[in-house]
Amino acid sequence: MMADDAKFMKRCIELAGKASGFTYPNPMVGSVIVHEGIVIGEGYHLKAGEPHAEEIAINSVTDRSILPSSVLYVSLEPCSHFGRRPPCADLIISSGIKKVIIGTMDTSINVSGKGIARLKGAGCEVKSGVMEQECRWLNRRFFTFHEKKRPYIILKWAQSADGYIDMERSRDSERKPNWITGKAERILVHKWRAEEQAVLVGAGTIRADNPELTVRDWGGNNPLRLVLSGSGNIGEYEPLFRTKGHNVVFTCDGSAHIKDSVIVKMNDEENAAIRIAEYLYNSGIQSVIVEGGAEVLGHFILKGLWDEARIFYGCDFFGKGISSPEIRGKFLTGDKFTSSTMNVIINEESQNTG
Amino acid sequence: MMADDAKFMKRCIELAGKASGFTYPNPMVGSVIVHEGIVIGEGYHLKAGEPHAEEIAINSVTDRSILPSSVLYVSLEPCSHFGRRPPCADLIISSGIKKVIIGTMDTSINVSGKGIARLKGAGCEVKSGVMEQECRWLNRRFFTFHEKKRPYIILKWAQSADGYIDMERSRDSERKPNWITGKAERILVHKWRAEEQAVLVGAGTIRADNPELTVRDWGGNNPLRLVLSGSGNIGEYEPLFRTKGHNVVFTCDGSAHIKDSVIVKMNDEENAAIRIAEYLYNSGIQSVIVEGGAEVLGHFILKGLWDEARIFYGCDFFGKGISSPEIRGKFLTGDKFTSSTMNVIINEESQNTG
């Protein structure tokens, strides 16, 4: 039976992941209803404001009379809150389902055991912690945000075969962007942006590349765009990113004024990573992908404020330039995107901002 | 200047109240922008998901160049959260406004001083606590929910001239509903329902009146409908309330099953008020109006779990019947609805559920 539990929970995780990037500020959740070993209903949460996974799964069952002898699997603890629809815990109870198998608890303040308590209070048999690690990994942004009180931080860069993140950069040079990676990697990066709530670059990246930081090569929502510019002296690059959207500029110059951008004053650049993480947490932003350059990445690495690094390896040799950041961590294996030209490194000692 | 501050804050409160009942789970908020003593912009929060008061007020200003020498008044501390739009604190900062006058702090966990801190951090002059009592009264449901961790509880009943809430009631009698009040009062009650998130009645009311508990004589949202039925024996009155909607039935009979209704099991009827308040808090419901009968009202009065009682006085004498509840509290004066036939009593010793 344990093997079956894992099998059905895997399906919940698979379903949940279909909405990756669309559910903020809600977590991704998938649910499967099983009767005598056969899946009779499935659902996942599409986006905030839309029905939750459990409701969709229950409503997808044709013969409701067999619900009392069915098992509901769900990757995250059911909620106990009235939104536009009744709480999922209540819906499960009133559907007649008597057995609920949960991937992991919802540790956010609004749920945090209340859903399980309500199910048990109504006489449901509840088992929690099936494929728990995988279910927590699925919503690692959500859990980091609620438990560590800061966003989940992903670092991203591309480096040359000899370990340089960029050629020597001078502000006055008229050099073209130097692409270490190709079109396939760009599409992948756009997919990543669609999965995170915010993207951060330094002023140097604005000056050198003036990127759009959108998801144009992938379906999804554009992330909130953040710039770290100690001097605040990037007004000449207006409009930032060339496209409309929310921009936030972190700067030590409180009098800076950049069109369509919110200016957030920092006392010093040294603690920029802490200040940015705090600002994002207080703003309800659950994740950020830091796309460089080396100096910005360095701020986060120095403070231990990162969870995941995604590194592309190019074939060119630069000979000299700006060295790529050095980090310590565990290589992620088994991820479908990891390849000879890309690695994901997990920070096992990631820090809180406090 | 103080008199002017109060004048402009009163206007904020007036604006905020226009959205009464529509903003859940958000509070009501109004904002006014003043330049050299003249109002140049106004706004209020219409409903959750729509722009906040400050954004509407800022966008209503024609000549944005005078914003840096203008004052923004707002009845509640500006938020610091990204939703569909940037945080209000950021919008105020980037608008150039340098002085912000706030009615009262937002004590909910997501704001709780963060908005004021962000404004001050950006160099804004901030004054909080203007017309504070009135601003807290405006959002008494919101503050009770977040601070006392239970919904705001309003009791409502009508009593005869000789103090009876109802004639003797027998379940088998075929008596008609006995209206103590008339059409004007019914419209007022529908307005009240539109202002609260939930309405509660006892099984006796279902049996005697089978009410709809909707807001059909007033514009607004129907409240969530709650029934307290110790025995759970009201299935014969299906469909409850004759109209579609969410129903929650609190009962000691866990095996009860009532169409379109969520069943919440209670261990005992004695602590029904505590159980209902807890359930509503855990479900994110910020307010409830308890419309009787006498037994249900009694549960809340006995536990001190009520904030406000609204009592209609009829002209008829019943001679005998069910006595109206006895309560102690402060009569609300100056309320436009208080009249010779209606009183509002405030509980100055209202209890937490815990």
Short description:
Helices cover 27% and strands 22% of the residues of chain A.
List keywords for this structure.
homodimer; 354 residues; alpha/beta; five-stranded mixed sheet; 10 helices; 16 strands
Could you characterize what this model shows?
By secondary structure, the first copy, chain A, is α/β, with parallel strands linked by helices. Chain A is built from ten helices and 16 strands. Chains A and B meet through helix 3, helix 4 and strand 11 of A and helix 3, helix 4 and strand 11 of B.
List the helices and strands and how they pair.
Two copies of one chain form a homodimer.
Chain A: H1 2-17, E1 30-35, E2 38-44, H2 53-59, E3 71-76, H3 88-95, E4 99-104, H4 114-121, E5 125-128, H5 132-138, H6 140-148, E6 152-159, E7 164-166, H7 183-195, E8 198-202, H8 203-209, E9 224-228, E10 247-251, E11 261-265, H9 272-282, E12 287-290, H10 294-302, E13 308-313, E14 322-323, E15 330-331, E16 342-346
Parallel strand pairs in A: 3-4, 4-5, 6-12, 6-13, 8-9, 8-12, 9-10, 10-11
Antiparallel strand pairs in A: 1-2, 1-3, 7-14, 13-16, 15-16
Helix pairs in contact in A: 3-4
Calculate the mean pLDDT score of chain A and round it.
Answer: 89
Task: Report the principal-axis shape of chain A.
Answer: elongated
Order of helices and strands of chain A: HEEHEHEHEHHEEHEHEEEHEHEEEE
Low-confidence stretches of chain A: 171-177
